Amino acid sequence: MHNLGFALEGAWKVLVASLILGAGLPMLFALGIRSLAWGAGGDAEVHESGVTGPTPRPAGTIAGWLLFAIVLAGVILGITFIVAGGFGKALSFEHIYPTIVNK
Amino acid sequence: MILALVVVTALGFDFTNGFHDTANAMATSIATNALRPKVAVLLSGILNLIGAFLSVEVALTVTNAVVKIQNSNGTPKPELLSNGGTALLLIVLAGLVGGIVWNLLTWLLGLPSSSSHALFGGLIGATIAGLGWAGVNWNGDGSKLDGVIGKVILPAIMSPVIAGVVAAAGTWLIYRVTVGVAARFTDNGFRWGQIGSASLVSLAHGTNDAQKTMGVITLALIAAGDWTDTKNIPLWVKIACALAIALGTYLGGWRIIRTLGKGLVEIAPPQGLAAESASAAVILASSHLGFALSTTHVATGSILGTGVGRPGAEVRWRVAGRLVAAWLITLPAAGVVGAVMWWIGHLIGGVAGAIVVFLILLALAGFMYLRSRRTPVDHNNVNDEWDGELVDETPVPAGKAS
């Protein structure tokens, strides 16, 4: 059953990559929403004690949009990956930051 | 003549592929009202169209994963080419018919089964009928992941599990992070996230699935002697396939959207985001590493996963069980149809045989379409409360229908 070996070898790579991108990015997105709500203050956040949050905090708003930007960058990377694959190119991470190389 | 039938049938398969798989990307967005149903299918259709054009990578060897009717460079096996390639064309035609018939039947029942499995099943069945058991590439040659087991069965077992784990983890994290945040922030924000991630799945679907049909049509053209280049695909084939899959997506397999969006799990926007992100990530990561998988299996696994990951969510395991049962029989069932079609075509022989096979396809497709009209599911009732059945089988009185 050589196929099983190949499949298992690939499966954990897919699992790790997908956990980072498919669960990590949504978590950052959720953090962004949390920051926005924290930044907006007022009744955006309801605490367990039932007390509503204090006045607006700009830092939270900025952090929120920053997190969205990171998520967006991840998505753009995903689209670039699809497009590059279609034209016979591949994304390479050998310089840490992604570059488009020939396959 | 036979070639024309093969091309039309292949485009027909591409079309069913599109509307069968709309649900994979858009079911969650429709279920959470992030997008109105009509807008969702339009967006998905356009992205599939774009995706299909982006996939210029040659997919000529698509059948090699499961059957031995092509050489490794994409040219058809020479022994199948006598008499204008009739032998190969009949196998391909019968295989496609098997795929379409199974896609339509599962659509009628509202079951999200894999279109790739339907296609491969049909081809395997037709090949067994035409060339015998040895004509099927069961287990590859041991050098890489290959064959029916390596390219079809193992990914089908693993990909839904991986997608489910990722989606469950994502859902759990999202709910942990947003505890106590007002609903007006979470719902709106996550709806946007959902639309983005669902669009990514649509785009990836277009690039993955339209290729398969392009490859099959080009193979048929080569067999019939109308095309010789194994490095490129004729432009009209690309355009026709892209349009067929986009149109099918736009039409929307509402029955399947309903099952995936409402039937398995009651989905809230954060779960939708988690599910689509997990699907997109698994599909992209696997295709990057060169693994073939079915978008359907991934999407279903993801949606199940978000049900498991959200504390207190209800997962309808009975529905899930029926889906898994449908997956298990997709390959053999499409194979049986493909084999029967090959025998019918072979017994009658030549062009007449191919025409009869094509007419049988039209008759079956027409019958299933009429059956579907008795209990229509469309953009108006796709989100109705789930009543426990896959597709309500009680006939609607005439006049009330549609």
Task: Provide a descriptive summary of the structure in words.
The complex is a heterodimer of chains A (103) and B (402). With 103 residues, chain A is of the alpha+beta class. Chain A has one domain. Chain A is built from 2 helices and 2 strands, in the order H-H-E-E. In chain A, strands 1-2 form a two-stranded antiparallel sheet. Chain A is elongated and about 60 Å long. In chain B, helix 1 packs parallel to helix 10 and helix 2 packs across helix 6. The two termini of chain B are 38 Å apart. Chain B has 12 helices and no strands. With 402 residues, chain B is an all-alpha fold. The C terminus of chain B is likely disordered. Chain B is globular. Chain B has one domain.
Give a short summary of the structure:
Chain A is α+β, with helices and mostly antiparallel strands.
The main pleated sheet of chain A reads as: 2 strands, antiparallel
**Strand count of chain A:** 2
Mean pLDDT of chain A, as a whole number?
Answer: 76
The rough form of chain A would be described as elongated
- Share of helix of chain B, binned: over 70%
Strand order of the largest sheet of chain A: 1-2
Order of helices and strands of chain A: HHEE
Separation, N- and C-terminal Cα atoms of chain A: 30 Å
Q: Mind telling me the C-alpha Rg of chain A? A: 20 Å
Tell me the β content of chain A. Answer: 5-15%
The end-to-end span of chain B amounts to 38 Å
* Count of all domains of chain A: 1
Proportion of helical residues of chain A: 55-70%
